[in-house]
């Protein structure tokens, strides 16, 4: 393939990724593309041949050339892993170290795309990885502002994907995450053994991620099933993230009765971290994803999850066009402070 043919092929792939041509829609004719790029139809025909061979476009009788609308997979050996993970989050950095270690063990090179602090920026990072030829990616989504249409198109183009922890992707990618129901059941068991008489879930207002939502819903469901008194306290996530303000909860804690033990459940370690030392002495913390050493926490098994991510990518690679999305849930590890 000549350099000019490759440039045209790459631009057409970028057009599909950016949504100019969506899966199932008509693709421009060879003549239209030749006129657009001011090249010969022979050059365009070669570029179209490469796209067709890769399964990106298909020729259909009575319809013409269309963008493939069926899921595909990169079936070759995994040589490079694209990691879309923000660097300003300690949990994400821990997972990055773990996934890099697992990649090294498997002889795979890791390409990091931090992707910034928003789903929009992470989507652009995915586009850059795909345009650069990366065909296997792991995503730790910042929020649900991700361009899910883009990731759907990446799947159609044969990019294998695993989403980790925060965001449930749906049909276009596998998901590896914590068994959140099991996590909350374990933590609530601990609180009951510790003599808790009141159960409060610390929620992150403004944090739009599926893992936090699942943990809140699991907390409510378990408390209702066991007939435990419970309520939700929302903390502004922007203030929690930057450790600014009083989080609007000082008055709430002043109203709590002092004669009974209160269990505070954090959907993530940051929520417990910012409140440590600011709550009454009769309050005890129980968190998912770590926190200060002196509190009970239920952490994600990073090494097992990194292995699960690679296992999922390998299954996608082997299944090819027969692949269907799976949800991999792993039990965590309970850490109790010394009394």
TrEMBL record:
InterPro entries assigned: Bact_HTH_transcr_reg, Peripla_BP_I, Tscrpt_reg_HTH_GntR, WH-like_DNA-bd_sf, WH_DNA-bd_sf
A single GO molecular function term of this UniProt record: DNA binding
Domain HTH gntR-type: start-end pairs: 2-70
UniProt feature coiled coil, ranges: none
SMART domains registered for this protein in UniProt: HTH_GNTR
Superkingdom: Bacteria
Keywords: DNA-binding, Transcription, Transcription regulation
Transcription regulation found in the keyword field: yes
PANTHER family, alphabetized: MANNOSYL-D-GLYCERATE TRANSPORT/METABOLISM SYSTEM REPRESSOR MNGR-RELATED
The protein, known as: DNA-binding LacI/PurR family transcriptional regulator
């Amino acid at each position: 393939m000549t350099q000019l043919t490759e440039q045209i092929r790459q631009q057409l792939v970028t057009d599909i990724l950016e949504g100019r041509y969506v899966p199932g829609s008509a693709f421009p004719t060879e003549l239209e593309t030749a006129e657009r790029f001011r090249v010969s139809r022979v050059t365009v025909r070669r570029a179209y041949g490469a796209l067709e061979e890769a399964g990106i476009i298909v020729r259909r009788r009575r319809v013409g050339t269309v963008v493939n609308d069926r899921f595909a997979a990169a079936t070759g050996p995994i040589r490079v892993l694209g990691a879309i993970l923000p660097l300003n989050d300690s949990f994400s950095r821990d997972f990055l170290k773990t996934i890099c270690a697992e990649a090294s063990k498997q002889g795979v090179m890791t390409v990091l795309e931090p992707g910034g602090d928003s789903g929009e920026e992470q989507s652009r990072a995915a586009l850059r990885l795909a345009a650069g030829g990366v065909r296997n990616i792991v995503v730790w989504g910042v929020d649900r502002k991700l361009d899910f249409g883009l990731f759907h198109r990446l799947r159609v183009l044969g990019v294998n994907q695993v989403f980790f922890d925060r965001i449930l992707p749906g049909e276009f990618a596998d998901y590896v995450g914590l068994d959140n129901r099991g996590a909350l059941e374990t933590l609530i068991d601990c609180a009951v053994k510790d003599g808790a008489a009141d159960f409060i879930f610390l929620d992150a207002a403004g944090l739009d991620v599926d893992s936090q939502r699942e943990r809140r819903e699991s907390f409510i469901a378990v408390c209702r099933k066991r007939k435990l008194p419970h309520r939700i306290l929302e903390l502004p996530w922007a203030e929690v993230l930057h450790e600014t303000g009083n989080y609007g909860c000082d008055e709430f804690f002043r109203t709590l009765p002092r004669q009974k033990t209160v269990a505070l459940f954090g959907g993530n370690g940051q929520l417990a971290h910012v409140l440590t030392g600011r709550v009454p002495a009769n309050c005890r913390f129980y968190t998912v994803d770590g926190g200060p050493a002196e509190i009970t926490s239920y952490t994600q098994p990073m090494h097992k999850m990194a292995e699960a991510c690679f296992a999922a990518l390998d299954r996608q690679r082997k299944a090819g066009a027969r692949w269907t999305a799976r949800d991999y849930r792993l039990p965590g590890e309970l850490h109790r402070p010394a009394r």
